[in-house]
Amino acid sequence: MAGLLVVRAERFRVVRLLDAQFPAYYRLIWNEHVPEWTELTPLHRGECMHAVAAIEIVLRSELQPTKVNLASFGNLVPHLHWHVMARFDWDTHFPEPYWGQPQRPANQAKLQDLTDRMPEIDAAMALAI
User: Fold this and answer.
1) Domains in the chain, start-ordered, CATH in brackets?
2) Helix or strand or coil: residue 26?
């Protein structure tokens, strides 16, 4: 899935995934190749989670989502990255995971409003990180 670079820092980058159904979906990707979070030094673990928290804080303050999902999978790509996704009670899959079964049709009006706001959210994200 394509992504838009939002932040490039010394040790990580943040991209917003270009997902039409989930426009408020970000990924923090650690630049150095490590498969697991615990392979980072304690200082770098703190830096990583500080950035993940900053992403969540921006999503919560700017969008007031129903929930923010955080995950670090890396099953298919064994490279440290965190998924941070704003979820809404109106999204197609809520309360199920986004990879699960849809629970309702897309609310095109709300989805378009959210999509239109994403450049503003990206800018806030860049300032926060």
Assistant:
1) 3-128 (3.30.428.10)
2) strand
Two structure tokens written together for 16: 């917003």
In the 8-state DSSP scheme, what is residue 98? T
Cα angle 93, 67, 18 (rounded to 5 degrees) comes to 60
The predicted-structure confidence for 96-119, as pLDDT tens digits, reads as follows: 999 899 999 999 999 999 999 999
CB atoms within 10 A of CB 65: 19
Nearest 10 degrees: Cα torsion 59, 79, 50, 55: -10
Write the Ramachandran bin of 62: left for phi over 0, alpha for psi from -120 to 50, otherwise beta. Answer: alpha
CB neighbour list of residue 62: distance below 8 Å, 6 or more residues apart: 117, 120, 121, 124
